[in-house]
Write a structure and sequence with these properties.
The chain has about 475 residues and is an alpha/beta fold. The protein has 15 helices and 19 strands. The protein binds manganese (II) ion (MN). The site of manganese (II) ion has 5 residues, from loops.
Length: about 475
């Protein structure tokens, strides 16, 4: 279980009795938060920091502890902040500055100077906040009573994002084949991706997978077919085509386990030795938390793995999606998202059907794929692009809607949505921002989750939502370009 360190700030000035009380309160608070983070991570009380040496030690320990995904800091009393400088300079984990108190209400009848000196977060957290700002430290500030549900929600959100950021460190991404020829937005700087996020992105020949496919036994294919039969409706007579995909998936599973892979890409331009483009094989793998990007799109694959990690334990679906086509009826504009095959069945509104259809691209046999209509509800679409001098996340608020009419001839899974605030504004903003035609769509996460992840990884983020106004949006983009040039 991953951990979040709970670190309380104080000082030596108040005497032993006060410090004993500070520690007792802190332990109780950390224990309460620990219970509220159940299933997500542990909250571990560390110590009451009274000196710069203690601050440095605990921050170094948090930085070097591989199980520590972040820290919660809180000043019970005043804590002169010069003592925090060395510690905060050493801290390389996400920080949540919890601006709270041990007591919810003021004891109006009994309050005296002793009470005020013991419970002065309003004072101490401002001093601590100043030094964080002075050091240019990215952190999340959560203000309010620590037992209130909205505060707990924000801490849980932080923990989810911290788990995503933690997954990044050393995450391995496999590319079968390279980026689709001549495509710009799916390409990127893999060395920079590893420096910035810790994503270790490597090329594999599709032949490496074919070699594994050749070792898959009939019994293994039978077991995979039984898994499909349990989850999906077999809506084809071409069982051989489905078995071919089942074989691919067994091989991909084995490859993933052997190489410790969290995300992968393939490309229809490099299928040497495969009879079909992976369809249901790729789709079913995506349901197991593995990120996927087609056409060599390693950024979307990696981001998909991270966002799936961030949404673990939350209701909703998260997966790869591609902008495809529109219904441009005035005032009721809808987007149809899909892909040539690879849409994750986590998005299915009802039981997916296994079908086999011709695929005009890739020059291979007809591939088996899962076909379904998509879920509805509030969601986000997130795209990561490489601006040359930095990465940018584009996050758009969308409303997934039921498809207005059946599409009996469309042989692929699909989602439909409205971009906010409207298609004329939202889609234009996306295009001004350089957002890709590939994204990770999630109904489990919100723009706030992406904001946290962006903060933790120091990534530029632009959000498109109900409040987006094109003039200020374009000005924001210009400001961001200017800021990047100044860095
Ligand atoms: Mn595509």
């Amino acid at each position: 279980m991953k951990k979040i360190y709970f670190i309380t700030g104080s000082q030596d000035l108040y005497g032993e009795d006060v410090l004993i009380q500070v520690e007792k309160d802190s332990r109780e608070m950390a224990q309460y938060l620990n219970e509220k983070m159940a299933g997500l991570c542990e909250v571990v009380f560390t110590l009451v920091v009274k000196t710069s040496g203690e601050a440095e030690d605990v921050c170094l320990k948090a930085t070097s502890d591989k199980d520590c995904i972040g820290v919660i800091t809180w000043m019970h009393t005043f804590s002169p902040a010069k003592m925090w400088i060395r510690g905060l300079q050493a801290l390389k984990k996400p920080m949540l500055h919890l601006h709270t108190q041990y007591n919810e209400k003021l004891p109006y009848d009994s309050i005296d100077m002793d009470f005020m000196n013991l419970n002065q977060s309003a004072h101490g957290d401002r001093e601590f906040g100043f030094i964080c700002t002075r050091l240019g430290l990215k952190r999340e500030v959560v203000a309010g009573y620590y037992r209130h549900e909205n505060v707990i929600e924000q801490i849980r959100r932080f923990a989810h994002a911290a788990l995503g950021a933690d997954l990044c460190r050393g995450m391995r991404v496999a590319m079968f084949g390279n980026n689709m020829r001549d495509v710009a937005v799916t390409d990127g700087d893999r060395v920079e991706s590893e420096i910035k996020y810790g994503w270790n992105v490597n090329y594999y020949g599709i032949g490496d997978l074919v070699k594994i496919i050749d070792t898959v036994t009939d019994a293994e294919v039978d077991a995979k077919m039984a898994e499909y039969a349990g989850k999906y409706d077999m809506d084809t007579d071409n069982i051989e085509a489905v078995r071919e995909q089942a074989k691919y998936e067994v091989a991909i599973d084995r490859f993933i386990a052997k190489e410790n892979i969290q995300a992968f890409t393939d490309t229809f331009q490099d299928l040497h030795g495969l009879r079909q483009l992976p369809g249901i094989a790729a789709q079913n793998v995506m349901t197991k938390g593995i990120g996927f990007g087609p056409e060599g799109d390693y950024k979307t694959a990696a981001l998909g793995a991270v966002m799936q990690k961030m949404s673990e334990g939350r209701s909703g679906a998260t997966g790869f999606m591609e902008d495809y086509t529109y219904d441009l009826t005035a005032g009721e504009e809808l987007e149809l998202g899909s892909h040539m095959l690879e849409v994750s069945p986590v998005f299915a509104a009802s039981k997916p059907k296994i079908q086999v259809h011709h695929l005009g691209i890739g020059n291979r046999e007809d591939p088996a794929r899962l076909v379904f209509d998509g879920v509805s509800g509030e969601g986000i679409a997130v795209s990561m692009i490489d601006m040359g001098d930095r990465f940018r996340l584009v996050c758009a608020a969308i409303e997934l809607v039921p498809q207005p009419q059946p599409m009996p001839k469309l042989p692929v899974a699909r989602l439909m949505w409205k971009i906010k605030p409207s298609l004329p504004v939202g889609a234009a903003a996306w295009i001004y921002a350089g957002g890709a035609h590939h994204a990770v769509v999630s109904t489990a996460l919100t723009a706030d989750d992406i904001r946290l992840f962006a903060k933790m990884t120091d990534t530029e983020l632009v959000v498109i939502d109900e409040k987006t106004d094109l003039n200020s949006f374009e000005q924001q983009l210009e400001m961001l370009d200017l800021m990047a040039k100044l860095k």
